[in-house]
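Input record (Table S2, row 116):
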Amino acid sequence: MTLGKQLGVSIAALVMLNLSGLAAIAQDGNAERLDDRRMFKSGQEAFEKVCARCHTGRPDAVGPEFFSKGYDADTIKYFVRNGFAGMPAFTESMIDNATLDELAAYVAAQAKGTPQ
Ligand code: HEC
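Output record (heme C complex):
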């Protein structure tokens, strides 16, 4: 086997190992490992970085102000993962699940007028 081929085989093996590792994390819900893969410090930070530019209620924002509408956390998560008319969907590679849980709770708390 040439060096090039050997390298290719080891890279393929590494990729497979990595994928099975991820599947294992998804299955046993290892919170520590999932935290390592978080993309934002908090749900509020993610809201400010991702959602606020379209949803601030400013006259130049393209999306509606929705804090006053009283959506619950599950509804917010649904809109984020599926998109809605002019709003793009945000996948797990854009906002991880742990952050999205916090983001949805943050928005729902704003909707209820509970300061956070
Ligand atoms: C690129 C701009 C944009 C970004 C970024 C964006 N949205 Fe939206 N969003 C929209 C638009 C536009 C609509 C309205 C769609 C329509 O009614 O046609 C909308 C609608 C919504 C609605 C429904 C509101 C209503 O009452 O009609 C929710 C909830 C929502 N977005 C949540 C979020 C959250 C949470 C994020 C951050 C993860 C986010 N959006 C990021 C543009 C955006």
